[in-house]
């Protein structure tokens, strides 16, 4: 058994035993419909999918007094259907790079020793989703987890399509010597007028975003830089958004970067 598989299975077993298993596993993927013709410069095209995939990077800082702060950016570029099993990116302008979708998000809370590791509890957070029609925006992480990423929009044409600052639940766990996971749940996930023109079904729009990645153990101190994968799926609860995974807890450097 590989090191990564051993760590993944151990973390999954721990998550299940603590009752923090991913909510994605317990909910069916729901279809959503996008009107890409609403994006300036994009051609007329509509697609129906049930999952978006991408990648993200974050900074997390521990204050040495039991608190943590994390900020991150993510880009979405892969489009899937059939419960996330069929890649339809080639039939979309998002998946072929005509334009870009990205998110800026943050969270802060407390961390404390718990059994064989550390428990994380979030107290506040925010999530904002944008469209970049020219696909030319770049990002730079802040100096630490209290500073939002710098967004450089060369064409000055990016626009907000959805946001929330209502964090209702945030829990995570780091198993010392193995790795860990994190689960954030947001309510009041609201589309802008431009967002409603882009996501045309379901109405009202509601989404869950699952963040996951390969991770290793780390010292709960100082400032860490983490990269990972991000996916977004719909859930039945209107206005609910969940961020799941190790990276929003800053749970160590990605194993992927070490290969």
TrEMBL record:
Signal peptide bounds: 1-27
Chain ranges of the Ice-binding protein C-terminal domain: 235-257
NCBIfam families the UniProt entry points to: floc_PepA, PEP_CTERM
Entry annotated with the keyword Signal: yes
Superkingdom classification of source: Bacteria
Database matches in InterPro entries: Ice-binding_C (IPR013424)
Keyword Signal found: yes
Pfam families: PEP-CTERM
UniProt protein name: Flocculation-associated PEP-CTERM protein PepA
Swiss-Prot/TrEMBL keywords: Signal
Coiled-coil blocks: none
